[in-house]
């Protein structure tokens, strides 16, 4: 992205953390900031969602990445209805950057041709109470304590919420961590309990998915399941579940995934 994330703003980006020009980064904490949806957390921190207009190069490239990363065969009717840039509170972004810098200082990943801290763009599917399409039209979300989607939007990913979901799933192959995957089709599965009816198409549902930066650092590569794992071994920053490993009940991982703790 070269230009400001705000629609119809043709100024160049000055703040890469938010993809905003100088004018809009100054407005970020004001009531005048032109976001599509605003969510205020119980801590009085504001997250802004900016809808990316269909037909723009950013929408097209993000949509194409999502489709290219969909590896499940025989899927019909797949499409992207809406894409939003998520602008988290500045304190959360600052904490993330501090953590990333610490991981980089230990691993020197940039010298290996990787991103700082071995940062990757991965997917996370989740439950949510919000009716996503309706919410976008009304320019608000539910902000319910029971809505994982709103919780992530307001507070980013929270390790204390691990294992809390509407699917009744307690099995955690790589332990008690936050899970991400390079495959949109795998992440899609974990949002199926949050699927909501499409407002304009009978029989069609819509789900929420996050495409997010994740600091992986040095990834541990286990061969066995460890549901009680709460951190990788000393010297590692994340856990990498590789395809064909970590058997459970006769089944191995069909697609790779990562866990951070």
From TrEMBL:
The keyword Iron does not apply. It comes from the Eukaryota. GO terms for cellular component: nucleus. Transmembrane segments: none annotated. GO terms for molecular function: NAD+ poly-ADP-ribosyltransferase activity; NAD+-protein mono-ADP-ribosyltransferase activity. It is an enzyme of class 2 (transferase). Residues 33-261 form the PARP catalytic domain. Keywords: Glycosyltransferase, NAD, Transferase. Its EC number is 2.4.2.-. InterPro entries: ARTD-AVP, Poly(ADP-ribose)pol_cat_dom. The keyword Transferase applies. This is Poly [ADP-ribose] polymerase. The lineage of its organism: Eukaryota, Fungi, Fungi incertae sedis, Mucoromycota, Glomeromycotina.
């Amino acid at each position: 992205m070269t230009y400001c994330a705000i629609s119809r703003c043709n100024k160049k980006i000055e703040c890469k953390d938010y993809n905003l020009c100088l004018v809009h980064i100054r407005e970020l904490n004001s009531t005048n900031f032109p976001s599509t949806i605003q969510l205020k957390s119980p801590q009085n921190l504001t997250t802004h969602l900016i809808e990316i207009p269909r037909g723009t190069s950013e929408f097209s490239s993000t949509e194409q990445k999502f489709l290219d990363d969909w590896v499940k065969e025989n899927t019909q009717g797949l499409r992207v209805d809406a894409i939003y840039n998520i602008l988290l509170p500045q304190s959360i972004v600052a904490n993330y950057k501090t953590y990333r810098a610490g991981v980089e200082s230990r691993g020197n990943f940039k010298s290996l041709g990787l991103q700082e801290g071995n940062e990757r763009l991965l997917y996370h599917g989740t439950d949510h109470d919000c009716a996503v399409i309706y919410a976008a039209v009304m320019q608000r979300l539910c902000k319910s304590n029971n809505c994982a989607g709103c919780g992530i939007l307001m507070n980013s990913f929270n390790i204390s919420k691990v294992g809390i979901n509407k699917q009744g799933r307690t099995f955690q192959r790589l332990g008690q961590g936050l899970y991400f995957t390079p495959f949109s089709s795998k992440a899609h599965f974990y949002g199926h309990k949050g699927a909501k009816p499409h407002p304009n198409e009978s029989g069609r549902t819509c789900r929420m998915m996050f495409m997010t930066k994740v600091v992986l650092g040095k990834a541990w590569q286990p061969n066995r399941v460890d549901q009680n794992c709460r951190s990788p071994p000393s010297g590692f920053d994340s856990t990498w579940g590789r395809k064909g490993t970590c058997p459970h009940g006769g089944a191995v991982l069909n697609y790779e995934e990562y866990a951070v703790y």
